Amino acid sequence: MAEHKHVRVAVIGSGFGGLGAAVRLRREGITDFVVLERADSVGGTWRDNDYPGCACDVPSHLYSFSFAPNPEWPRAFSGQGHIRAYLEHVTDTFRLRPHLRLDSEVKRMTWDAQRLRWQIETSSGPLSADVVVSATGPLSDPRIPEIPGLDSFPGRVFHSARWDHGYDLRGRRVAVVGTGASAIQIVPSVQPLVSRLTLFQRTPAWVMPRADRAISGAERRLHRRFPFTVQARRGLLWSIRELQVQAFTRHPGELGPVEWLARRNIARAVKDPVLRAKLTPDYRIGCKRILLSSSYYPALARPNVDVVASGLSEVRGSTVVAADGSEAEVDAIVFGTGFHVTDMPIAERVVGAAGQTLAESWKDGMQALRGASVPGFPNWMTIIGPNTGLGNSSMVLIIESQLNYLADFLRQLDVLGGRAALDARPGAVRGWNERVQERLKRTVWNTGGCTSWYLDASGRNTTVWPGTTTEFRRATRRVDLAEYQVLRVPARVNAPAEVAA
Predict the structure, then answer these.
(1) Buried b / exposed e across 404-423, counting CB within 10 Å, b at 16+?
(2) Which residues of 166-194 are buried (b: 16+ CB within 10 A; e: fewer)?
(3) Are the folds of 6-141+340-490 and 150-211+238-335 the same?
(4) Helical H runs in 339-387?
(5) Does the structure show a pLDDT above 90 at 498?
C-alpha cells in the first residue's frame, strides 16, 4: 500500500459491483483509485462459491455487463467457472489490475471530519480516500446457525460458500442443511456419490424446471460477427422480466398459474405422495425466490436420500437431530444456510461522523437514500445497498444503475470544487424509505405468507426493490443535491491535501 497513501476513491470488493465501479471510474477519467479485496483474486461471490453444481439462475446474456457483452457464453445459464472467468476477462480488458490491492481486507473505516476523508485500516496497511464505494455485496459472509453440539461434531463441517475440496464425499453419510438456491444445486451433484444423504428442510422451496441448454457454435459465431445480436438477445431477456414484475409487486394473484405449473413439476418428478407433501410449500410462489432445477426433485426421490421436514436443532456426537426429534448418523454436515444479508458484517467496520458504526445506525433496520447513501456517513456509497435486490431479474442491471448514481455523485463533488463532501439528509432518506416500504406492503414478498431472507429480524423487508429495473434506473440517474448536505473543511485545517507518496 506504500505507493498509495491517499486516493480519491477506494472501492471495497472485486465482485460484479466492485469491478463495475472500477470500470466506471476509468470511463469517467478517474484513475486515482484502488480496489481493496480481502482474497487473493477477483470474483466476489463467484470466486467463493465453487461448490459442486454451482451456477447462476439468471440467463448468461443478462447476467453480464452491458458495456462488456460476451458472445462466448457456452450455456444459457452459466456455471460458476465461466462467470468467474468472465470477471477475470473484464479485469484485464479494462486494465484494472494496476488498481487492485489483493489480500487487503478492510478492518475499519473512520470518517475524518477535519479533513473530509475516510481513514481506512487494511490488513496490508493504512490509506485514506476522499470517497469510499462499498461493494462487498450481501452474499459475501456465510451464515451458519448456532446449533448446540456442533462444535463437538467429529466429522467435517463446512458452508456451501467455503466448500472443503480436500474432503472426499464418496461413500460418506452427508447431511445438507437448507433448501435455498445453493442447496438445490448441491444435492443433485453429490447424491450419486454419497452412501446416504439427509436433507434438513425447514421450509420447502418452489422449484421450476431449469431451461438450460448449450449455446451452439453457430449462435456464438453469429454473436461474434454481429455484436448487435448479443444486445438484442439481452434486450429480449430483460423485457420478459420487466413484464413479470407487476405480478410480484402489484398483483400477486397473477402468480397463480405459475404456482400451478410448479405443483405439476413436483407431481411429475415425485411419485411418492408422502415425499410430495413434504416438498410442497404452503405459501404463495414468489414469496421466497423461485428456484430453478430440473434435477433437484429427481435426486430427492432416490433411495439413498431422506428428506427431514424440519430444521436441524442439535448435534450429539456424530448424530444430527432435527426439531421433530428424528435422528441420523452422518460423517459430514454441509450448510446451505445463506449469508448475512440484513446484518452485513462490513457495517460493524464503518465508523461515521458521529462516532457510531453503520451497524449501530442500522440497528432498527437498514435504509439508504436510493440504496446508496446513509446519513452521517459522508462520501460513502454502497453498491447493492438496502432495498436494491431483485426477485426475478439480474442484479447486474441494478449495479449499473447505481454506477450511474456514483458517477454523478463524483461529478457533483467536482462542480462544488475544493475540499467538499456530500452527506445524505436524514429527511431525504426517511422519505425515500417510507415510499419504498409503502410500495412493499402489497408485494408477494410481504404478503405471500413466508419468512424469507428478504426480511430482517423484525420482519421488515430491507432487501428487495419493489419495482422494475427501469424505475430504479430513473431514480438513480442523477444526484439531487437538495437531498444532501454539503460539507466543507473547517477553516483552521483548510490546508492542501496530501498527494500520493
Answers:
(1) ebbbbbbebbeeeeebbbbb
(2) eeebeebbbbbbbbbbbbbbbbbebbeeb
(3) yes
(4) 358-361
(5) no
Q: Considering the entire predicted model, what is its pTM?
A: 0.94
pLDDT in tens, 360-402: 999 999 999 999 999 999 999 999 999 999 999 999 999 999 9
Tell me what pLDDT residue 395 has.
97
CA distance 390 to 320: 35
Average pLDDT of the chain, as a whole number: 95
Residue 431 CA to residue 445 CA, distance in Å, equals 21
**Residues 40, 483: Cα–Cα separation, whole Å:** 38
Domain map (residue ranges) of the chain: 6-141+340-490, 150-211+238-335
Structure confidence by residue, pLDDT tens digits, 126-178: 999 999 999 999 999 999 999 999 999 999 999 999 999 999 999 999 999 99
Task: Say which CATH class 150-211+238-335 falls into.
Answer: alpha beta
What is the mean pLDDT of the segment spanning 62-85? Answer: 97
Identify the helix (H) or strand (E) that includes residue 499: none
- What is the CATH T-level fold of the domain 6-141+340-490, as seen in this structure? FAD/NAD(P)-binding domain (3.50.50)
CA atoms within 13 A on the CB side of 116: 20
pLDDT band at 492 (very low <50, low <70, confident <90, very high): low
Write down the pLDDT at residue 3.
Answer: 53
| Alpha-carbon 36 to chain mean position | 18
Q: How far apart are CA 205 and CA 310, in angstroms?
A: 13
351-374: burial string, b at 16+ Cβ within 10 Å, e else: bbbeeebbbebbeebbbbbbbbbb
Per-residue pLDDT at 496: 47
CA distances (Å), 191 to each of 49, 186, 277, 388, 429, in order?
19, 8, 21, 35, 48
The full length of the chain comes to: 501
- Decide the pairing of beta strands 305-308 and 196-200: parallel
Q: Stretch 255-276: mean pLDDT, rounded?
A: 97
Q: Which residue, 433, 426, 439, is CA-closest to 462?
A: 433
- Compute the C-alpha angle 180/343/37, nearest 5°: 90
